[in-house]
TrEMBL record:
Reaction(s) catalysed by this chain's protein: Cleaves type-1 transmembrane domains using a catalytic dyad composed of serine and histidine that are contributed by different transmembrane domains
EC number, as in UniProt: 3.4.21.105
Organism: Suricata suricatta
EC category name: hydrolase
UniProt lineage: Eukaryota, Metazoa, Chordata, Craniata, Vertebrata
GO biological process: apoptotic process; cell differentiation; cellular response to unfolded protein; membrane protein proteolysis; negative regulation of apoptotic process; positive regulation of protein metabolic process; spermatogenesis
Gene3D superfamilies: Rhomboid-like
Domain Peptidase S54 rhomboid span(s) in chain numbering: 63-207
Name assigned to this protein: Rhomboid-related protein 4
One Pfam family this sequence matches: Rhomboid
Principal location: endoplasmic reticulum
Family, similarity comment: Belongs to the peptidase S54 family.
Keywords in alphabetical order: Apoptosis, Differentiation, Endoplasmic reticulum, Hydrolase, Membrane, Mitochondrion, Protease, Serine protease, Spermatogenesis, Transmembrane, Transmembrane helix
MF terms (GO), sorted A to Z: serine-type endopeptidase activity
Length: 316
């Protein structure tokens, strides 16, 4: 884990430009709130990285359990934030509309906490089994563990197809495992245990008892899944640094797609899928809405740039 450096946050600028391309009105509320929360904590962290990262020593030995809440929403630098939130953008658009905003918010909260707990158990088990105390001190930060859990859900609700992992087609049911290995060959400094914890939490939901337990606890808003007669397939391509990157988001949904809409095929990249999904949505919303959203986000982007410039001047 590296310390955040001062300067122009290029990753943050790219993230805002990507949100601008998608359009705020095209992003479901919980997904948008998750993006905003992560950006807010990046600009105004509650604690320094060493005070918010998650490890066995800091949580179990020092009893600093608030790190379970803080670690998923803090990032090491702007590129770490960018790649995680770019992935969150398309996963959130897909899953929130499929499951409903209330249930998706419930999933985000549950997965954020449970991924941290599983991560601690994995690191503790490695330290004991390998007699290596260093595993207790491994400190992880970022949202990528939750994203791996969400990817398991996405593959579960959209089965079939052969996503591309580093240019190689991989059966959808094995895609998460292939990506887990691939990303750590490309970027060895990432938290293998943190990403593995996310996959295990996702499997606990899709194959284990977690979903039923959540439904029993929720009561008032059981999960809902939109089913359609058409299978949708997604390609996963590209990795960079901390998390599998899906630069321009992902698929739309059957209830919003015209009958002659052919965007969701295994031959299209995720960028092309989202491009066509957005076009269909924008056709329905009209040109005026597009201009309004673009203007609002442009103003927001300018405000962030001004804020960063003032911060640099004040520190000089």
């Amino acid at each position: 884990m590296q310390r955040r450096t001062r300067g122009i946050n290029t990753g943050l600028i790219l993230l805002f430009s990507q949100i601008l391309r998608v359009g705020v009105s095209n992003i479901p509320p919980v997904t948008l709130a998750t993006l905003a929360l992560n950006i807010w904590f990046f600009l105004s962290p509650v604690k320094p990285l060493l005070g918010s990262c998650l490890s066995v020593d800091t949580c179990y030995q020092q009893k600093d359990w608030q790190r379970l809440l803080l670690s998923p929403f803090h990032h090491a630098d702007d590129w770490h934030l960018y790649f995680n939130m770019a992935s969150m953008l398309w996963k959130g658009i897909n899953l929130e509309r499929r499951l409903g905003s209330k249930w998706f918010a419930y999933i985000i909260v549950t997965f954020s906490l449970l991924t941290g707990v599983v991560y601690l158990l994995l690191e503790f088990a490695l330290a004991e089994l390998m007699n290596e105390p260093g595993f207790r001190g491994n400190c992880a930060v970022g949202f990528s563990g939750v994203l791996f859990a969400l990817k398991v859900l996405n593959n579960h609700y959209c089965p079939g197809g052969f996503p591309n992992v580093l240019g190689f087609p991989v059966p959808n049911r094995f895609a998460c495992w292939a990506e887990l290995v691939a990303i750590h060959f490309i970027s060895p400094g990432t938290s293998f245990a943190g990403h593995l914890a996310g996959i295990l939490v996702g499997l606990m939901y899709t194959l284990g008892p977690l979903k039923k337990v959540m439904e029993m606890c929720a009561g008032n808003f059981p999960s809902r899944v939109h089913h359609s007669g058409q299978q949708y397939y997604f390609n996963s391509a590209g990795y960079a640094r901390y998390q599998d990157s899906y630069p321009y988001g992902g698929p739309g949904y059957s209830e919003e797609v015209p009958r002659n809409y052919d965007a969701y095929t295994a031959g299209l990249s995720e960028e092309e899928q989202l491009e066509r999904a957005l076009q269909a949505s924008l056709w329905d919303r009209g040109k005026a809405t597009r201009r309004g959203n673009g203007h609002q986000l442009t103003v927001l982007l300018l405000a962030v740039l001004i804020w960063m410039k003032l911060s640099l001047l004040l520190e000089m």
